[in-house]
Amino acid sequence: MEARVKRRALLLLVLGIWMPMAVLGGTRNSTVSSSSPSSLSSRPRVVNIGALFTVNSVIGSSIMPAILAAVDDVNADSTVLSGTRLNVVMQDTNCSGFIGTVDALQLMEKEVVAAVGPQSSGIAHVISHVVNELRVPLLSFATDPTLSSLQYPYFLRTVTNDYFQMYAIADLVDYYGWKEVIAIFVDDDNGRNGISVLGDALAKKRAKISYKAALTPGASRSEIDDLLASVNLMEARVYIIHVNPDTGLSFFSKAKNLGMMSSGYVWIATDWLPSVLDSSDSVNADTMDLIQGVVALRHHTPDSNQKKTFASRWKNFKGVKTSNFNSYALYAYDTVWLVARALDLFFNDGGNVTFSDDPSLRDTNGSALNLSSLRVFDQGQKLLEILTGLNITGLTGRIQFDSQKNLIHSAYDVLNIGGTGLRTIGYWSNYSGLSVITPEVLYTMPANTSTSNQHLYNAIWPGETIKRPRGWVFPNNGKPLRIAVPFRVTFEEFVNKDKGPSGVKGYCIDVFEAAIDLLAYPVPHVYILYGDGKRNPSFNNIVYDVAQNKYDAAVGDISITTNRTRIVDFTQPYMESGLVVVTPVKEIKSSPWAFLRPFTFQMWCVTGAFFLFVGFVVWILEHRLNPEFRGPPRQQLVTVFWFSFSTMFFAHRENTLSTLGRFVLLFWLFVVLIINSSYTASLTSILTVQKLSSGIEGIDSLISSSDPIGVQDGSFAYNYLIEELRVSTSRLRIIKSEDEYVSFLQKGPQGGGVTAIVDELPYVELFLSNNKCIFRTVGQEFTKSGWGFAFQRDSPLAVDLSTAILQLSENGELQRIHDKWLSNNGCSSQNNQVDDTRLSLKSFWGLYVICGAACAIALIVFFCRVYCQFLRYAPETEEQEISEPESARSSRRSLRSRSFKDLIEVFDKRETELKEILKRKNSDNKKQISHSSDVQPISPA
Q1: pLDDT (tens digit per residue) in 264-280
Q2: What is the model's pTM?
Q3: Which residue in 57, 540, 733, 924 is deepest, having the highest Cβ count within 10 Å?
Q4: Read out DSSP for 821-876?
């Protein structure tokens, strides 16, 4: 609203200075008048369009010949505006915002149906208010992103919006991995608003403008010198230069003198630089030497026969001052043709050009202003609708507008200056981002703006190197890096106050200094102790102060947590960490029944049962063959028991003769071997293990209990237990010294102490080592994190130091520093309790299943064979059954074969004896069959 009031005040000021409009009103269309009714039914012979630009400028010198040539080509083409001649009225703004505004108002009194220009965004802002009131479409070359179609409905941009150019630069910065840039710009509407869009675009890529170096329009050389000297002291080395083409090269002259065009610097210029180079007759070697390695963007216009023809005709155009032209000449030529095509459609649709007085522009009493000379174009809205709906092809390619009245195909050439010319290293389009393929080809493919799809050819950077510059250096402004260091009270080995020059010492300090020494550039720094030395400081507060720019970094035993990474950047972890539980331990008293502890009760029962089972199976399999497994029942029972338990020591004297018996014994002896070995190992561990004095087995049992828990002062474990594990604050005890560590654990919850302490693993390992391992950790680490150095967001030092820390780890220096400060006489981090060392059935059930399966298979095979023998066996009788009928003998034999007593008799017989019986039975059966065949049957009479 304030800007609108200022513009209206400026307009009234101009009108006050302006001479009476009657003097300046002699160039109206002679055939167009609101008082001439006959003109409404026919096309006018002449229609006026305006052109507003700075003639004597880099852009204006290309625009003017192009506009004049386009008007001549339109008037010479009988297919366009047949019967109507296009007349262009030009006004020179003379690079002045005030003069440009006056010229714009003078142009509007000529009753133009459309205005081409201006190139200045500042003038475009003012004149846009005028054309809104007078309904005259304004086809402008102003690239200011804030010239929106909502505020200025009659403003139509016929060149690529700087909004897209700034997003192209943001993609370039992201492609090369830079995080901070310095923007150098002229503090006018175009420069200020363009850089504002650049900041938004970089933020989406997690980058930023670290400093905005603004210059007043028309700044002197001394002002440029001072600005470049100040930005050269900053750490960012990526410069985005967005200035006017007429004075832009002077920046590089001073930069060259300051050594800012050497290796390590990055210069990205907007489209102003290619505009200067393209429109120059020739660029001398000294100028090219100033801009070696610069990357610039140029409006992309596709190669075509039309464009080649235009270039060949250029030297013959009226008003040509240079033998070359820039991209604005192509846009200007297309703009005139766009107006001509729109007017042609307008007239073909029956449109008439008429103007009428604006009721809001009335002379006040006593005023000398002749405001009636500014008249409203009655058909302006209709012509605007035709213009925005056109879809034609010109020298710049396809010309069509989107809903925001921007050209739909916004694209740039990515140029690299090297040697004596410009080299195209790629393209950028709002369709597919960075690519080495021309946008015209990409438009035929599906849109793809993914990171993996972004490609450019190698660029040559300042200093004639193809290695990508790091994009920043440590600032050479005499200010050392302010590093906050926690003033610890406990575990001073990690970081502590020192009387030396640096003021601090410890493991963390040595790691940081070793990493700094690996950097390719010096990093002046000063350590600032954080805390009062009476208790450990809050590490969350240290990190927060770094984020608030009170310190540049924080070095110490700072854990990398999720909440902290949201506000600062951490380096690669140099120490692995995680929360663990510490409890006191005591020695186990000797017991006469300690030998039973290796196995659980269930394990003892199953093992004993299997000893008996295997002995019984072997007895069954060996009873018929092996005389050692025969005898009176009492003797055989003793044999089974003796054989079973003697296998425990591999001391059995009975030999196994059957194949099945040996098969079972093979599996059983393997099981016995495993059981013996496990028993021995477990018993050894139990006799030397220590037992916890509390029932805490890990974090789960600790949380489920109601006992107090100790937490180190300043540790993130305090908030973690409360916020993540929902532990009541009433259970937590703050431990402020190592002595309190010992006393709290030894007292226990009954004596006013704690049942366990939750702390980070590096502290715990050092604590256990310093106290001769009288305490132990239980359970596993229940968080996984690490220690890192904290820097402000997007600090390049965080990335470089991460690389240095990895180098320290690879070359062994990190371990050497660890051994220097931290004791190697560590304790076992995990205490094995008695219950944990006892062996249960779940560890061996697989072996028992295998052994049981082997026994089952052997028994099945054995009983199948016995049953087959039983079917062939029949007891001997003293009676001869020859005289009995065959059916009776068969029935009695069948009954006898099914007798359980006979089955037991077969099972109990020796194998050799049974074989003799079966052999004799087979012989007798053969004799009976032979005798029966000798008896001839008697035939009936």
Answers
A1: 999 999 999 999 999 88
A2: 0.67
A3: 57
A4: HS-S-PPPSS---HHHHSB-GGGTHHHHHHHHHHHHHHHHHHHHHHHHHHHH----
